[in-house]
UniProtKB/TrEMBL annotation:
Record organism: Megamonas rupellensis
Protein's UniProt keywords contain Nucleus: no
Protein name: ABC transporter ATP-binding protein
CDD domains, sorted: ABC_NikE_OppD_transporters
GO molecular function: ATP binding; ATP hydrolysis activity
Membrane spanning stretches: none
Length: 251
């Protein structure tokens, strides 16, 4: 399978109390076309820092992130625009990623407008997007504070897929939702992965969700990847004590 995203020797240091704090320590992995890759670990293990570097919201201290063999942290402005058409991210708290003074419909089509789609065409696409994520069409007239967390997360997913990316990075997108809504979002991602031929990076601390969505898994602890492999094999026969602890918590 084609390699889409490759992370090589990635390290991220922060200055904390006049000392270097290593948030990420020599991270290496590959995302292939069609993969659904879970990155799992407790809060503070470096998952979100890694996600921010993958989407170029932060820069690594050492190492590279290659998208189709090109280092994203060396992109020109034009190349970066092309990258964001192909790699999109959905965040943990969707209400914070929407303009509270803008109707959701206008927010969802914003990426389309930014790539040159005329507004009339974008509004036609909007209805299809809302249908894809199982939302009523009238939600496009509402504001973020007028809908539930689950509905807002569906709107965030609709916005992310509006420009037909190849890779979708999901950073703890179900952690603030109730159990039923978590499963609904998970089933939506499963459906979209098949319909849109998406490759997904799913960042979570919940192994129960991960095993339903992801075919591959990375276990992170204190900034390092301590275990990796096929999700079914890692969960069936974990090698590291920390992985065993995570499985026990979820069982």
């Amino acid at each position: 399978m084609q390699e889409i995203l490759k992370v090589i020797n990635l390290t991220k240091n922060y200055l904390k109390n006049d000392h270097d704090f290593k948030a990420l320590d020599d991270i290496n992995f590959t995302l292939k076309k069609g993969d659904s890759l879970a990155i799992v670990g407790e809060s503070g293990c470096g998952k979100s820092t890694l996600a921010n570097i993958l989407i170029r919201l932060e820069t690594p201290t050492i190492g590279e992130v290659l998208f189709k063999d090109k280092n994203i942290h060396q992109y020109s402005r034009q190349k970066l625009k092309q990258f964001y058409r192909q790699v999109q991210m959905v965040f943990q708290l969707p209400q914070e990623s929407f303009n509270p003074r803008q109707r959701l419909g206008d927010s969802i089509i914003e990426p389309l407008i930014n790539i040159g789609t005329n507004k009339a065409q974008a509004k036609q696409i909007l209805d299809d997007l809302l249908t894809k994520v199982a939302l009523p069409l009238e939600i496009k007239y509402k504001y973020p504070h007028q809908i539930s967390g689950g509905q807002c997360q569906r709107c965030a997913i609709a916005r992310a897929i509006s420009i037909k990316p190849q890779v979708l990075i999901c950073d703890e997108i179900t952690s603030a939702l109730d159990t039923i809504t978590q499963m609904e979002i998970l089933n939506l991602l499963l459906k979209l992965r098949q319909e849109l031929d998406l490759s997904i990076i799913f960042i979570s601390h919940d192994l129960a969700l991960v095993q339903k969505l992801c075919n591959k898994i990375l276990i992170m602890y204190q900034g390092k990847i301590i275990e990796r492999g096929l999700t079914s094999e890692v969960l069936k026969n974990p090698q590291e004590e920390y992985t065993k602890e995570l499985i026990n918590i979820c069982s």
